[in-house]
Amino acid sequence: MTTRVALIGAGGHGLSHRRTLQRLLDAGRIEVAGLCDRQPVAAHPDAPLDGAPFFTDHTELLSVTRPDVVVICTPPHTHLALALDVFAAGADLLLEKPPVMSLAEHEKLASSCGGRILQIGFQALGSVALAELCAAEPSGEIGVTGAWWRPDTYYQRAPWAGKRLVDGRPVLDGALVNPFAHALMQALVVADAAGPEFRPVTLELERYRTRAIETDDTTFLRLTGADGRRITAAVTLASPVFIAGEIRVGEAVLEYPTDRLRLPGEPDFRHVPGRAGLLENLLDHRRDRTVPLLAPLSRTAGFTAVAEAIVASPAPEEIGPEWLTPHPDGGGSVIAGIDSLVREVADTGRLPSETGVPWARPGHRVALGALPAH
Ligand SMILES: NC(=O)c1ccc[n+]([C@@H]2O[C@H](COP(=O)([O-])OP(=O)(O)OC[C@H]3O[C@@H](n4cnc5c(N)ncnc54)[C@H](O)[C@@H]3O)[C@@H](O)[C@H]2O)c1
């Protein structure tokens, strides 16, 4: 019998899931049980999903259509409650990243699966380039960079964008926990592969903003593991110069958004094609449990611990207008020289306040608790 798949949260990023559903429907791999969104969602020519019933209430979708598999693509602070309803309805689940808001929610989710399959939407974990980097067991300090530009409109795209609270409830946004979340997740996976399991024990953080938002658009993080190994991440959404993003481990470098890899001794980057789809992988695992899940919840505990500590830390510091220049296209300002700075921080492991960057402020330090056992 064909697997019946439903989608909760069909607007916004849900369009990418509608495209996947259309592709798998056309290939005869699934039936689309139904779509759900609180808002009306316009059909898209790439993914018309003709005839799929539409619901505004997920409980009605679940009780009427009885799907085998559900994809949840709603804002992070809504994930846990929706996921519990999906498990109560007996369906397997692909839950968008970040899965949950805290380690307490992680444990609640883990203990509520009741034997159902749970995959988390960190699609970069399906990267063949990442697998090749991990298999090479690179050694050395880990540095993560990324320098992008996001105009003011980016922070108007969703009610929770750029916010710390919505309706009095915490939400999860900020450069490293949202747009660069895949970089952080991949760096934690690489650290696990590069030695004994990486257990972050200390987090040192500098968060900055260039505009009137509640969260950060420029983030520097140093994570120290129980064995002394470190991951230093430096990312910004306020750069005039684009750096796609790199994870550097000693002499190995993965340009993670493009799957370009350079292993020690190799002169140049080479493209390593291949990304396994997370829904396809979940369907394969459903059919044959010897096929491993690429992004099970257990793999994301370190990410959740770090994300929880970041959003619970003091509000980001504003970088004053004297350090900013308007972006040539309008829509906000950029930090002059930030592209060089993110590289320097990731390469040296020293945060901006430790190297005399004039707009930098002393960082925030947190001791992280134990992660749940895998
Ligand atoms: N994997 C990725 O690369 C990637 C990229 C972008 C976003 N995301 C994740 O996807 C999720 C959604 O992000 P977004 O930017 O589309 O958010 P969004 O705020 O635009 O929400 C998506 C949709 O969910 C709907 N929605 C909200 N609550 C609902 C509910 N209770 N029932 C049904 N529908 C509901 C909204 O109406 C909206 O259409 C987030 O977890 C985000 O982090 C992942």
TrEMBL record:
It comes from the Bacteria. Transmembrane segments: none annotated. InterPro entries: Gfo/Idh/MocA-like_OxRdtase_N (IPR000683), Gfo/Idh/MocA_Oxidoreductase (IPR052515), NAD(P)-bd_dom_sf (IPR036291). It holds the Pfam family GFO_IDH_MocA. Residues 4-112 form the Gfo/Idh/MocA-like oxidoreductase N-terminal domain. PANTHER family: D-GLUCOSIDE 3-DEHYDROGENASE, UDP-N-ACETYL-2-AMINO-2-DEOXY-D-GLUCURONATE OXIDASE. This is Gfo/Idh/MocA family protein.
